[in-house]
Design brief:
mainly alpha, 9 helices, 0% strand, globular
Length: 178
C-alpha cells in the first residue's frame, strides 16, 4: 500500500537542489497530467507503480539502486520494484515505452503544463543555466522543436498541438529579433 508521506520524505531531497523547472513542482505537474490522461482513457494500469515511477522519474538515472533499496525497505516485492523502475525509465523523453504505464508517464512528462509550458520551461531553464536568449533559442531549435512525441491516441493530438504552437512561437520570435 502506497505511503505517500514516506514517499515524499524520500524523494523531496532529490528535488530540493534542482532548478525551478525540475523540482517538486515539476513532479506535481506531471502527476496532474498523469491523472488527466487516466481520466481520458479506460486503461487498466498498476496505479501504484505508475505513481511511484512519477516521483522517481527525475532521478532514476542517477540513483536507481537507492530507489530499489527504498522500495525494498517499504516491503515492495521484486516484481513491483522491477515494474516501477521500468516505468520510471520509460518516462524519459528519448525512450520508447513498452508498458501502458510507461506510455502514460512518458506522455505526461512531455505534456506537463499544457501546450505553452514547453516554451516557458525551455526559456526558464536556459536562463537558469546562464544562457543568452539566442543560445536558448538555438537550443530550442536543435533539441526541442519537433523532438517531442506521444504514444497514446488520447495524447497524440495534444502533442501535435503543442509542437505546432512551439514551432510558431519560435518562428515569430526569431523573425522579431534577427
Amino acid at each position: 500500500m502506497l505511503n505517500e508521506k514516506a514517499l515524499l520524505a524520500f524523494v523531496e531531497p532529490y528535488y530540493a537542489e534542482k532548478d525551478i523547472m525540475h523540482n517538486m513542482w515539476h513532479i506535481e505537474l506531471v502527476r496532474k497530467m498523469v491523472d488527466r490522461i487516466l481520466s481520458l482513457s479506460n486503461y487498466k494500469v498498476d496505479k501504484e507503480c505508475l505513481i511511484l515511477a512519477t516521483y522517481f522519474h527525475g532521478f532514476i538515472y542517477s540513483d536507481e539502486e537507492r530507489i530499489k533499496q527504498w522500495l525494498a525497505a517499504q516491503n515492495y516485492d521484486n516484481d513491483i520494484i522491477s515494474k516501477t523502475i521500468k516505468i520510471a525509465w520509460e518516462s524519459q523523453r528519448n525512450e520508447i515505452p513498452e508498458t501502458i504505464e510507461g506510455k502514460i508517464l512518458h506522455d505526461a512528462h512531455v505534456l506537463e503544463g499544457g501546450k505553452t509550458y514547453l516554451i516557458v520551461k525551455t526559456l526558464i531553464t536556459g536562463s537558469v543555466r546562464g544562457q543568452s536568449l539566442l543560445d536558448t533559442l538555438h537550443y530550442m531549435e536543435s533539441k526541442v522543436l519537433n523532438k517531442n512525441y506521444c504514444c497514446l491516441p488520447e495524447t497524440i493530438p495534444m502533442c501535435e498541438e503543442m509542437n505546432k504552437f512551439t514551432n510558431s512561437f519560435y518562428e515569430e520570435i526569431m523573425t522579431g529579433i534577427l
